Request: fold
Amino acid sequence: MNETALLYALSTLAQTCAALVAFVGALGLYRLQSLANRRQETERNLRSALFLLEPESRLRTEMSPARQILERARRWRERHSSGSAPGGQEDILRQLEEYLQHWENVGPDSRRTSRLLMLLVVWNLGVILVAMIAFDFISILKGCWFASFGLWVSVVGVIFFTALMLLEMLGSLPDWLKRLHLIRLLTWLEREYRT
Reply:
């Protein structure tokens, strides 16, 4: 690979990564915000269902933190899991169960989206950093076989992480990708270095 081609490839790669971080990052932040909005709406629905189930504890339902609301809703679900409900409250209990399912689905979706977004950003910023450093060593890299190999690895990684993030945005990320070891690594790092 000659010097001009290597300079052009590094420059294009850095610019493309920066544009992808900006564009896909904005989409990722939009998805995270919509998931947060869904969680808030579900919390309001849980509060409403609890108010209908326990009208005598209206103030406690309005003032309790979300954690306590979830605990109370789960207790109602456990007590009446057989389907029998006092005083014709079967419909409300079905709605409560539905709201709890929504709540329990939003949490993992939000964590997975933020982890995939972090992977995309870290990979692309790493590629930009390496490309910027490589500009100083063009004369050394132009004759090396690993410069071409490194460019290919960078490009494949950028495409892979961008595709993962776009699948996540569309809500069509396959289950085997949801259990990807990279996401487990991020989960471990989160646990180890949480402040």
In short: Helices lie at 3-53, 58-63, 66-79, 90-134, 138-141, 145-170, 175-178, 181-193. The chain has one domain: 3-193.
